[in-house]
Amino acid sequence: MPYRAKVVLAVGLLLSTTMLAAGCGTTIDGNPVASSGSPTEPSFPTSRPTRTPSTSSPTPSAPPTSQQPGASTLTPDESGYVFIETKSGKTRCQISEADVSCETQFDSPPEQNGMPANGVNLTADGSMTFVVGNLGNIPVVTLDYQTYRALGWTIEAGGDGTRFTNDGTGHGMFLNTSGLEVF
């Protein structure tokens, strides 16, 4: 290819790249607000964590406060999380060793940054914050009314709500759509 043709080609590619990059820099000011007819989350095929009866569990660093014999163990997915949904379908949670994050349909939601909170995050040390957000299309295991263990947490699912207790620290929360109790 002659030198002149290479220069023209290089300049053309440079201009094309510059115009494409300039088109990607649009910013729209404002605050996002969901409409009442918000679209649902897209559905993607995902693997589901499995439930297996507990045969043995590691000894926590401090005595557990609510460890139940015969509790079912929820196995984390490949990213190290357990995702659950209550039997009523009104609460979904993401559990890790460090914290539990749940979204729920609060009857009277508290405000968080000027918006009604639809979630809560509780750390193993007992720090709690209300949040506004959506866990998305997570691969949940639907809980029955019984006791479960997952990643150092004991989960007691009942008809009146769900109790999460960190086995190492004893801190936790009792959550239902009527409210939240942190301990």
From TrEMBL:
Chain spans, region Disordered: 30-77
Source domain of life: Bacteria
Stretch forming the signal peptide: 1-21
Start-end of Polar residues biased regions: 67-76
Annotated Low complexity bias: 38-59
Keywords for this protein: Signal
Protein name as it appears in the record: Lipoprotein LpqJ
Taxonomic path: Bacteria, Bacillati, Actinomycetota, Actinomycetes, Mycobacteriales
